[in-house]
Amino acid sequence: MTMTSGSDNALCGRLLLIDADVACARQIGEALSETLLVAPQITQTSGGRAAADLLRNTHFDVIIADLESLHDLAASIEDSMNRLVRLAEGALILAVAGSGSVSAALGAMRAGAHDYIAKPVSGATLAGRLAELAQRHGRPRSLVVEAGPEPVVADFAGFVGASSAMQFLYEQIWRVAASSAPVFITGESGTGKDVCAEALHAKGPRASNRFVAINCAAIPRDLMESELFGVVRGAFTGAHEDRKGAAELANGGTLFLDEVGEMDLSLQSKLLRFLQTGTISRVGESATRKIDVRVICATNRNPMQMIADRQFREDLFYRLHVLPIHLPPLRQRPSDVMVLTRHFLARYAQEEHKSFSGIAQEAAQHLTAADWPGNVRQLQNLVRRLVVMFDGGEITASMISAADIESRVATANPVEAPRAERRSILPMWQQEQRIIEDAIASFGGNISMAAAALEISPSTIYRKRQGWSEMAAAS
Prior knowledge:
Helix content is 45%, strand content 16%. It is α/β, with parallel strands linked by helices. The chain has a six-stranded mixed beta sheet with strand order 1-3-2-4-5-6, sandwiched between helices. The protein is globular and about 75 Å long. InterPro entries: AAA+_ATPase, AAA_lid_NorR, CheY-like_superfamily, Homeodomain-like_sf, HTH_Fis, P-loop_NTPase, Sig_transdc_resp-reg_receiver, Sigma_54_int.
């Protein structure tokens, strides 16, 4: 069945909708028609096998797949999605799952789906998600789905940002907060992993109890166990009294383990036992204590690479990696840069009792175009420095240059290999091929694990491998 959009301005692309529920499929089709400024041609099919038949003969740019409708394609959701990815030839794939099927949705993403959305499906959210995926995965401009006007949240539980990436993050936090399952937060330094952990606690059923954070990278290894699990008097020199650890202090609430990848391997085994049994023993104590906490952890490192390097236990990772949340770097959401800048400017101007009239256009362009390797924290520090250094008025590009210490340091200390020592440079596609094939070999041929380590989707690897084969055949 083919559904035609009500818009006369059709998008140059094809969308395959897989859903056995005809009413739900119609609702999604109507939602797209109502919320998109431009709309693709939508083809709807009721199951996985029918979709596979279509994909063998027709190319689609976007696939929206209800996971329950794929049961006739393979024995499991992951296997069904894996087959779909192989046939899709690089299409953007968005999985649709029931609100209680988070694990199935995560399985679909491990198999190659680019993202998932929970039922009931909001047209505005769906359109925004498709736009974000198209932009994130480098689709041609003609395939970018543009969403019409919709209400956005610019300030949420400590986060500031109105981009579609942040709207998705806010939605994730709402969904995940209600659960008691462990959460694994990843993201570059300065993206707000601690803010995310506090938001999950504040929006969840444990909000009235304690939130206890412990930085695994900031505590010496020989003290880490007592900080986490507590100590009894006389257990070692300096232990003058019984003391509760972070886990016990958080009983009934939330325990946040920041930079969990820095934890010593021997302590990782004790953390795993705690997660499995729900009990702890203080250092120097033989008895066990029952503890009820929700565990949230975070790292700015690649967990799959840490596992490959034997710095992180694989069994602990899968015990913690139940509900993953990834925080996007600031360079991937440039529309939020000025939102954040104005927020910090108002905040610090009030603290310093100064008045600023705004931000010049040239200065705004400079800020938006920056890479921000330190993410939101770097921008926050820059704005605070501006407020301290200058008395007020309009923020200009020269004022930003004067306050931007990080960029000046990077420019003054370029890292450049001597000309005589430079190796010959391979074409980009050959370097990319080498990186991807090395990753696949590192994980024994497991494309899903290699994709997770490289922070790309398995479908991207399949698509690139096909392209390399065609290039080799042509040569």
